[in-house]
Amino acid sequence: MSALVLGPVEVRRLLPMRQCMDLVAQALRALAVDDGLNPLRWGVGLPDGRGILGMMPGYLASPPALGLKVVAVFPGNHGTELDAHQGVVVLFDDGNGVPLAILDASEVTAIRTAAASGVATELLACTDASELAIIGSGVQARTHLEAMLLARPIRRVQVYSPDRGRRRAFVEREGRGRDVEITAVGSVEQAVESADVICTVTSSREPVLMGEWIKDGAHINAVGASVPTARELDTAAVVRSRLFVDRRESTLNESGDFLFPKQEGAIDDDHILGEIGEILLGRAEGRTRPDEITLFKSLGLAVEDLAAARYVHDRALDEGLGTEVDLGGRRVLD
Q: Is the domain of 79 the same as that of 138?
């Protein structure tokens, strides 16, 4: 028995953004009809607080995908050559439990997170949205730019991050070969003042996007904060928005962007109007007016990772890519 090991270059080659958007949409539909399992993530924090080892198990019935993502999150990696998220996605055979594949989790996460925002943007943003603001300049800024250009007819992009050099480098790198105007600006407020779509993809634990800065009709993908003690949006931004999520249970337990306003008494659980899977199934209504603000709070789900990993595994087998390693327990029979 052998398992396939796939690194970041192979994952990137085998998982185009448009395809991943379709896979994520399929996974979220399946979860909404109980055709999958997605327990809350759990983690082990190092005693000195420098990092967390997080585990995200899950299962999808069709196509079958059983496994988990294990990620070490080390915020101290920001600003270095290393991604803050390091880990693997492990696929198992859902019939006998034998390991099928081990994939680089950083690249899977980078693509599928932006793909989920792409799906939400297609569902919730105004159809003529043409101006994009990206708050952040890291890996997720790169993949979110790609997803937003697929989701809407974006013509102008404004990027802000606190490090002037990094935001300028982002603009120079991502502007090559694209027929879209990309500029670096000096503040979040300047970036979002005319934005039709806003993506917050930061590592901040405090709000970076204020409700008073958001124009009527905008759509927001809030991505960076994924624990109860961190948020990227202030309370006013959440209160002003029609809120949609990838999963209610995750939001109620893990999202600081939701939990802080709730603790302040500004919103309650009914502020969550639906899951993306429910909109896809026609069970929830997305945007109802051109002037309302819509918000997708993304936390990231194991089923998204597994749908992407299964697709990459199957394509790798077809194309003869990856490295096979001998894994899987065997009994010695008398």
A: no
Q: What is the pLDDT of residues 275-314, one digit of tens each?
A: 999 999 999 999 999 999 999 999 999 999 999 999 999 9
Closest listed residue to residue 298, CA positions, set 126, 119, 167: 119
Q: pLDDT digit string (tens) for 191-227?
A: 999 999 999 999 899 999 999 999 999 999 999 998 9
Looking at the structure, tell me whether residues 182 and 281 fall in a common domain. Answer: yes
Both 144 and 207 in one domain: the answer is: yes
User: Is the whole-model pTM more than 0.90?
Assistant: yes
* Residues 84 and 158 occupy one common structural domain: no
Q: Which domain holds residue 257?
A: 126-297
Cβ-based neighbour number of residue 82 at 10 Å: 12
Strand partners, 73: 52, 85
Enumerate the β-bridge partners of residue 67: 58, 91
Number of domains the chain is built from: 2
DSSP 76-89: GGTTSSS-SEEEEE
